[in-house]
Fold:
Amino acid sequence: MIQLIKIMLPKEISKVIVPPIKCQGIKTKLVPFIAKSVLWDGNGTWVEPFLGSGVVAFNIQPKKAILADKNEHIINFYKKIQTGEINSSMVREFLKENGEKLYKEGGDFYYKVREDFNQRQDSLSFLFLNRSCFNGVIRFNKKGKFNVPFCKKPDRFRSAYITKITNQVKVLENIIKDKDWKFVTADWRETIGSARKGDLIYVDPPYIGRHTGYIDVWAQQEAEDLTSALKRSSAGFALSMWIENKYRKNQYVIDYWDDYERKTLNHFYHVGSQESLRNSMEEGLIMKSGCFA
Ligand SMILES: C[S@@+](CC[C@H](N)C(=O)[O-])C[C@H]1O[C@@H](n2cnc3c(N)ncnc32)[C@H](O)[C@@H]1O
Structure:
């Protein structure tokens, strides 16, 4: 009898699930490309050491996963959705109440919430700041204080926007509930170190070789250590990396990954508000042999 073998990846994704948290380098546009490029049976653990917004895992939806990031605020937010400590109704209420105050008091209120968040580190305030700060970036100063300025739109939390965020949380509640997922605050070394044969590590580090404004400055040494850890691991891996833009090629890829196979995708990003100012970027997925779809 022929037995059908179920595989997790490759997978066709026609509608991307968008997470409630935004971050620099979010892979919303690249999720379909990632999902159809990787080969993995899904029997082991999906290991994601640089979770960011979580958009990749939330779309792949592995049964078992370790979803880690050094940013404890992201991890705590998702952990609380998992335990039910935060739910979509609470999100709606919180954004409605605080959105009205933002409308009345403007920037002063945003900075009040930011100050309060830096004292108490409340997850709902983190969401509020993430969705009303400048460009949806996550950035902390050397003392670990969130320091992104206001987006300068006091009417940010209009009812359609609140509904959109609330729905994003609701969708996530449903995805998380039947999964064996562990959200962990950890440095990537620990996360990659825990991966075993049969697991798939999806790696999306802060942009190497550029100023990033992430929690830590991503140093050259760190990039080299990451390369060695991946090459040493007995697990499979897929590494997201920009390959080249209009101005230059990524030297890190040339130096460390030239002998590895990769799939690439060209996409455009806008510079400023004008449609005509578009730059092309080649994005790549560098994979361990055996992980190619
Ligand atoms: C490019 S972002 C990941 C984006 C994510 N794939 C997405 O689509 O939203 C990189 C992430 O790495 C995290 N990070 C930076 N340094 C780290 C470290 N040493 N260990 C673990 N995570 C780290 C940042 O907090 C950030 O969330």
The first helix runs from residue 31 to 37.
